[in-house]
Write a structure and sequence with these properties.
Oligomer: single chain
Strand content: under 5%
Number of domains: 1
């Protein structure tokens, strides 16, 4: 759903709907970061107990994916805050123009692209983690 909202913000040409999707995307981004932070603590505890029980190779294979997911979500939020601050300094009146003008001239379009890239990176890491943590799944993704 998260990536669908990001893609829809580029496709839809109606300005009011596009702005609404932009704000929905910002809230989804914050929610994703909170869920990632909460799930990282849970997975860290689970992996620690697996490490204590002797599953050290599994722990070493899976640990980077959990850390990278939180890292990507945090970096995305940091970049979004930096872009918003830059846009506020440069031109306050044009910050929330969601029109159909050139892609690079609309801050909302730039932030939408940032959120879409972040979403795709998190999705990739989650699929890799699922493949590593459950090798007996019937569906195998080739990434």
């Amino acid at each position: 759903m998260y990536s669908a909202v990001s893609i829809a913000s580029f496709i839809i040409t109606d300005v009011e709907v596009k702005c609404d999707l932009y704000f929905v995307m910002i809230y989804c981004n914050v929610t994703t970061w909170i869920l990632t932070a909460l799930s990282q603590d849970y997975f860290r505890r689970k992996h620690y107990y697996l490490k204590l029980r002797g599953y050290i190779t599994f722990y070493k294979e899976v640990q980077p994916y959990i850390i990278l997911t939180f890292f990507v979500a945090s970096i995305g939020n940091i970049l979004m805050i930096a872009l918003l601050a830059t846009f506020l300094i440069i031109n306050q009146n044009k910050l929330f123009t969601c029109g159909t003008e050139d892609f690079l001239s609309s801050p909302a379009n730039q932030l939408s692209a940032l959120v879409l890239i972040q979403c795709l990176a998190i999705l990739y890491l989650m699929i890799k983690y699922t493949r590593k943590s459950n090798p007996n799944t019937k569906i195998r993704f080739t990434l």
